[in-house]
Write a structure and sequence with these properties.
single chain, 162 residues, alpha+beta, Nuclear Transport Factor 2, Chain: A, 2 domains, 4-stranded antiparallel β-sheet
């Protein structure tokens, strides 16, 4: 009887694991398909030869941000909006590390959560999502800096969380 209960418990755990994996794949399948389509657009319709990573940016409209290299190995960033692809060499703009430094120079207590290229009002930008703990709570910010020269465009302050 103990063996039967052990086997039943093992079978139940296996079934639960399979169901959870299936559920996870179902939830993320659409996002993975969009990322794959963006990577294919870059390699098929631009100078992009390799794709290092793909990130999702949601602003005025959604973009897939593709980081990769051209056939000569030069680093590039691609903003993919459906079938439209805009490419900039990484060297044509300010580096991510420089944008991070700008935010930290604003206030040494800023804690950067994420830095990602994006689009704001038709301008290619670096979006910096960061937070700062203050006396009465934590405030989150979105800072936008021009991709080409790093000039600050705007900063959005979100409400504080206590």
């Amino acid at each position: 009887m103990a063996k039967k209960m052990t086997y039943s418990a093992i079978l139940l755990l296996v079934l639960i694991t399979v169901a959870l994996v299936f559920f996870y794949r179902t939830i993320h399948g659409e996002e993975w398909a969009r990322r794959e389509a963006a990577a294919n657009s870059v390699t098929e319709h631009t100078y992009g030869a390799t794709v290092d990573r793909v990130e999702s940016f949601v602003g005025e409209k959604p973009y897939m941000i593709v980081f990769g290299k051209d056939s000569a190995g030069k680093e590039a960033i691609f903003w993919v909006d459906g079938t439209n692809v805009h490419m900039e060499y990484a060297s044509a703009g300010i580096a991510e590390s420089d944008v991070r430094q700008k935010v930290l120079e604003l206030n040494g207590d800023n804690e950067i959560v994420r830095v990602l290229p994006g689009v704001l009002n038709g301008t290619y930008v670096w979006e910096v999502f960061y937070k700062r703990t203050e006396d009465d709570g934590t405030r989150h910010y979105y800072g936008y800096y021009r991709f080409d020269n790093g000039a600050e465009i705007d900063t959005w302050r979100l409400s504080k969380r206590k």
